[in-house]
Amino acid sequence: MSVVLIVEDEQHIADGLKFNLEAEGYDVETAPDGETALELLAKNPKRSKPSRQFDAVVLDVMLPGKDGFEVARELRQAGQYVPILMLTARSRPEDILRGFEAGADDYVPKPFELAILIARLHGLLRRREWLRLSRSSSETPAQNALGEVFNFSGKTIDFSKLELRTGGRTVQLTLMEAELLRYLIKNEGRPVSRQSLLEDVWGLREDTDTRAIDNFIVRLRRYIEDDPSNPIHLLTVRGVGYRFVADPGSGE
Question: What is the DSSP letter of 236?
Answer without folding.
Answer: E
